[in-house]
Specification:
Helix content is 43%, strand content 10%. The protein is of the alpha+beta class and 437 residues long. A 5-stranded mixed β-sheet has the order 1-3-2-4-5, with helices on both faces. A 5-stranded mixed β-sheet has the order 6-8-7-9-10, sandwiched between helices. The N terminus and C terminus are likely disordered.
Length: 437
């Protein structure tokens, strides 16, 4: 719908707004690894975590000798500018520690931020099926151009059977490899790229400088050399270290009773198998990045998912309360989702002209957000379960939705009435103690 049409529809409820004043907030670049959106960077680099995480390397692309004493695992996104920056540093690491370090690549395309990342990941994995992963890997990081024609040019340049390469990209095996890596990233609490692990230990800071890599590598190299002197074969050092690894760094989410007011904007069946509640802020740049996922959910799960939007304008965004009122005003004429999309696409055109209505709705949503512990936006609850890092990718959210659909199907087949489904799903997840079962 055109902007003029939307403005006409809500003219009776909204006092002049969107007159052309730019907001003071602009969307920042992609966040680095493990940094919550909106969190200011630390002044000093934090010390390396002593925890050793379980990171299988079998069936992943590996460069370096099998008996290298240090294994460097990288989770990366080929469209991420920080990953491209880190690639240059990793190349220095490989030269400095030649014969002592092997590099293992894991795919983690952040599709909601980088629309060409998934295609690039598939291109690399498919090249690996012809033994040319690393050649494709290096070319993908050498240039920001990742459109299909450029990827095909790279494929021809490195000598691939292009027809086979194209066929392999569509193979379910390629998608499964990428999803496996993304699931592993979630298990070890990776929410951004790049992320590095040295013999299973997390390297702080994402795209860290060479001296940060060297510090942790030297520490782990000394330990590995001691293991070899103690009788552990060099080729078994990583496996021996992994024996005492931690499988997951992600605490189980707390399940909370999340209300879904009848007058909140929503789409999807009232008795859907999965209910997602989002608290959001129309001036928040990260919420704008998450907004396309809402439409993906609508298109992917037209019958299985009910999506409920709740307002939570943050104090740091002075124009957010006005925008929230505009959303409620548009909802009164049945046009909330059109206004939702328009405001996220035109954040720089919001201004602070007041609206006369909708204050109660916005305040109620904000109070409810605080009740269930929402402290940042966007925050999603899937059948009451807070989705950690939900802003990062549609794929991680989709995996959770699919799991909940399976749970819902079991309850429905056991005789639970559709009208009781949401309450039962939340209650079963929470259990007697309120923790996830």
């Amino acid at each position: 719908m055109k902007v003029s049409a939307i403005l006409t529809l809500i003219a009776g409820l909204v006092l002049g707004f969107f007159i052309g004043q730019a907001t003071r907030t602009t969307a920042p670049s992609s966040p680095t690894t493990a940094q919550r959106p909106g969190t200011p960077p630390a002044r000093q680099r934090p010390p390396a975590d002593a925890t050793v995480y379980r990171l299988p390397v079998e069936d992943s692309p590996i460069r370096g000798p099998a008996d290298a004493l240090v294994t460097l695992v990288e989770f990366s996104d080929y469209q991420c500018p920080f990953c491209r920056q880190a690639h240059a540093t990793v190349t220095q690491v490989e030269k400095k520690y030649a014969g002592k370090v092997r590099l293992v690549m894991k795919q983690f395309p952040l599709t909601s931020l980088h629309p060409q990342a998934m295609g690039a990941a598939k291109a690399a994995v498919a090249a690996g099926m012809q033994g040319r992963y690393w050649e494709m890997h290096d070319r993908l990081f050498a240039s920001p151009q990742l459109d299909p024609d450029t990827l095909e040019h790279y494929a021809r340049e490195i000598g691939l059977d292009v027809d086979r390469w194209k066929h392999d990209q569509a193979d379910a095996k390629v998608a499964a490899i990428i999803q496996r890596d993304m699931d592993l990233a979630t298990n070890v609490n990776v929410s951004g790229t790049p992320a590095f692990f040295v013999n299973g230990r997390r390297l702080p800071g994402g795209a860290a400088p060479l001296d940060a890599f060297s510090s942790l590598i030297d520490e782990e190299l000394a330990k590995a050399e001691a293991m070899v002197r103690g009788g552990v074969p060099a080729s078994q050092v990583y496996a021996k270290i992994q024996e005492k690894s931690v499988a997951s760094a992600v605490p189980p989410p707390v399940v909370k009773k999340v209300d879904t007011p009848a007058d909140s904007p929503s789409f999807g069946p009232a008795m859907a198998k999965v209910t997602i509640v989002e608290w959001s802020d129309f001036q928040c740049p990260y919420c704008a990045r998450a907004a396309p996922m809402v439409e993906q959910i609508r298109q992917t799960y037209p019958k299985e998912v009910r999506f409920v939007f709740r307002h939570y304008p943050l104090p740091m965004h002075p124009d957010a309360p006005m925008a929230a009122r505009a959303g409620v005003a548009a909802q009164a004429q049945g046009k909330f989702w059109q206004m939702h999309d328009w405001m996220y696409q035109h954040q720089r055109e919001l201004n602070r002209d007041p609206l006369e209505k909708a204050e109660a709705r916005v305040q109620a949503d904000a109070q409810a957000a605080q009740t269930v512990g929402v402290s940042a936006t966007p925050t999603f609850f899937v059948n009451g379960r807070e989705h950690v890092g939900g802003w990062a990718s549609f794929d991680s959210l989709k995996a959770e939705i699919d799991k909940e659909i399976t749970r819902a199907d079991k309850l429905l087949s056991s005789g639970v009435k559709p009208a009781d489904l949401y309450g039962r799903l939340v209650a079963d997840s929470a259990g007697p103690s309120g923790a996830r079962n």
